């Protein structure tokens, strides 16, 4: 009998009951909620006269709808009436059911996928679910995380379990060394580009290899966060010394014998040598350049020194039509270089790239320089803790001096659910995870890239190759 993959071990360790060959009843260690995917679930519970079974294993946060204006935390107000009602409704539900909430004026408020790891809520071996697709982030710490729908939110609140359909196993090995000025964001955009927006559909993806081992815990979060853009149902990295160091700093509740026991468990969380994967890919990190999206899907991407593809080179009629549609929306011509394209806005933040490591990179590039005339550049930290740390390290002062807007935490311009939006036709260099039509605002044009690339674009006023621009020379 072949060995087990890390994914198989995580599922097996949380299996309450086997339903059939493809489904299990899965126990959930932590369930995270936000203001827009939970209201119907609480209403469903109330209609059935049920309470939340295990309130201590729930956490909630207001993050998608909250404005990020640079006012003190205590003065943050959601002016939009519908959004305000959503936030108040979440607070009422959490108060009634005794669930911890990072509310609008909480100084530690932020994006759910930034808050949870930094507060030690995510440990290797856990199953963590949330009504948000980028819950795959937690695989960076060896936890099984994935997004769920509203009806599933209700089921978890009522039972702390989920009827779960098993995924297939995929392994992506990345060996070699990432070149200078190439980051985990470039790596994941490259992978999504190579395997396609549906390339990992139905699979739990395990990352391994020299390049993955060399990534920091925060860089691994970026990698796992965006793997869902290839259709993955989960993304995982086996716990190692990097994981241990991050978790022991951020989870002070683990000490002494409890930490020793946890480490013994973590050591088992890796795929067996004879484990079989349904699909395997291998990539050389040394061949990867800074990547930029040119279209309206995260896989429509290319190296910054490349040119926009020509749809006429695509033999499949439907694929060719999709390329033409994306090119028309984004306003670029076939064969045109992506470097040099003028930009109007820059957004640095999100659950993909709103952590302290990301802001350090941006501040280093911005120090002593100025945002280009005519460009509006926003930096939105991923949480109140990240914001405070950036201010303590002097990063915020450097960014403000360079002309960047220093905002309060939240999802902000990652998606058009708050008042940080693009105007029609505006072109944005963005560190977010999706470049869909209208994602950042109606008729807005989004180019996904790394924090370093976005910072360089803000300073240059156009998309540039960070490897050959400014101090990178």
From TrEMBL:
Residues involved in [4Fe-4S] cluster binding: 351, 411, 414
E.C. no: 4.2.1.33
Reported cofactor(s): [4Fe-4S] cluster
Name listed for the protein in its UniProt record: 3-isopropylmalate dehydratase large subunit
Reactions catalysed: (2R,3S)-3-isopropylmalate = (2S)-2-isopropylmalate
PANTHER family the record matches: 3-ISOPROPYLMALATE DEHYDRATASE, HOMOACONITASE, MITOCHONDRIAL-RELATED
Any one Gene Ontology BP term: L-leucine biosynthetic process
Family per similarity comment: Belongs to the aconitase/IPM isomerase family. LeuC type 1 subfamily.
Enzyme class name: lyase
